Amino acid sequence: MKIVLIGATTGIGRSLAEFYASQGNEMVITGRRTALLEEVKNAFPNTKINVLEMDVVKTDEARAKMDEAEKLMNGIDLVIINAGVGFQKATYEQEMDTIDINARGFTALAQWSYKYFAQKGSGHLVGVSSLASQTGSAYSPEYHATKAFMANYMSGLRMRSAKYYPNVYVTDIRPGFVDTPMTKQNKGMFWVATPEKAAQQIAVAIAARKKVAYITKRYQIIAILLKILPEWLIAKLF
Fold this sequence. Notes:
The protein has helices spanning 11-22, 34-43, 59-73, 92-120, 141-163, 195-207, 219-228, 231-237, and strands at residues 2-6, 26-31, 49-53, 78-81, 123-128, 168-175, 212-215. By secondary structure, it is an alpha/beta fold. It has a seven-stranded parallel β-sheet, with helices on both faces. Helix 3 (59-73) packs parallel to helix 4. The mean pLDDT is 92.
């Protein structure tokens, strides 16, 4: 399988890159810190891994890098968009960064990927949104809002596939708490998964072509509760 993994420097993305590399898949891995990507490449000398520097905020450049990735592998079967950012009680600048990366950057790459797969006639697009897509938050409303955007965008693409492109699959991955550099700032975390465990469950969900997958699986319970709990109670939790 030929895979493009966007946001593979640390955390879930890096663990996914290592998992798929261990299975011998040809990959292009991207991120802003190429030295960290090179570490993954060097750890799997028998797997064909290409490294591309990519800043998803620079949408035109990022889309051009997707063209480059396609040429490097002579085709793409799976695109995983894992790039994202979040802050607790963000400043204005941080809120705008969150929107630029999680919403604008995601859309630029998801649109490229879906169009490519539609023209090809097959393929699989995976976006890593979040359990946060289920509700707002007193601490990081912009983060939750961008994750809801991602979830609804992918839902729309699945509807498009149902109408026009039945062999183009779209999977929305919604992690809860995973022990990554971005979550270090969060207090009161529970059911915290390691990046390795999260990656394994994500890979299973992708192989099964699931529409939506909560990581870890027991977070589906929280997702159901978030749909029925009153806003005043959710405000105390998020």
